[in-house]
Amino acid sequence: MPGKKDMPSTIARSGDKAQRTWVKTHDNAIDEYGEGERAHRTAFAALKYTHEKVGDHWEPKDHNGPSDDRANDPRARDKEGGTPTGGVDVLGHTKRELLERARHLGVRRTSNMTKEQLGEQIKKANDQATARARTDRASQN
Question: In this predicted structure, what is the pLDDT of residue 4?
Answer without folding.
Answer: 74
